[in-house]
Amino acid sequence: MNTANKLTILRVIMIPAFLLVLYLDVPGANYWALAIFAAASITDTLDGYIARHYNQITDFGKFMDPLADKCLVTAAMLWFVEVGQMPAWALLIVIIREFGVSGLRMVAADKGRVIAAGWSGKVKTASTMVCIVLMLLPIPPVVNSICTALIVLTTIYSGVEYFMKNLDVLTQAE
């Protein structure tokens, strides 16, 4: 197994560790969770760089890397919903966008087309990661609300952009 794939597996293993620290509610739990989340996020950047730079792109990585990212972000947002830091409808918007874009990519792949990550998707991912980091810190409720709004707005924008740019995939005859 190559280095990039090992980093992806490490990120997957860090997800339950992240949640476990939060649920144990030990002193400084949010800071420990923040450290785990940040480390997991860094493995995402590293495994992508290593995979491209050292030609370690694999089918496993193509499948598991985005899945690990989605699971990490969803785990954090589920925690925020559970503790009342984020409304459930905001998480639902994120999940619907992820399912929608993944479905669009599957239909495109079936037609021999690859839909690469777009600029707005990268902005959505980066802003979501930064907002999750902020939300793990003791911040004023207004900053928490701004982070939730930013996550929702970038999620909606990028989802609409993916569908508008690739609408032909859904309207092409078989």
Structure in words:
- This protein is an all-alpha fold.
- The chain has two domains: 1-72; 84-174, no CATH class.
- The protein is built from seven helices and no strands.
- The chain has helices spanning 3-24, 29-53, 59-82, 88-110, 119-135, 141-165, 167-171.
- Helix 2 runs antiparallel to helix 3 and helix 5 (119-135) packs antiparallel against helix 6.
- The longest helix has 25 residues, at 29-53.
- The termini are far apart.
The mean pLDDT is: 92
What is the total number of structural domains?
2
| Fraction of helical residues | over 70%
Quaternary structure: single chain
- From the N-terminal CA to the C-terminal CA, the straight-line distance is 38 Å
Structural class given helices, strands, pairing? mainly alpha
State the helix count.
7
The poorly predicted ranges are none
Residue share in β-strands:
under 5%
The radius of gyration is: 17 Å
Q: What would the principal axes of the Cα set say about the shape?
A: globular
Write the element-wise H/E pattern from the N-terminal end onward.
HHHHHHH
Largest sheet: none
Number of beta-strand segments: 0
Summarize this, please?
Helices cover 81% and strands 0% of the residues.
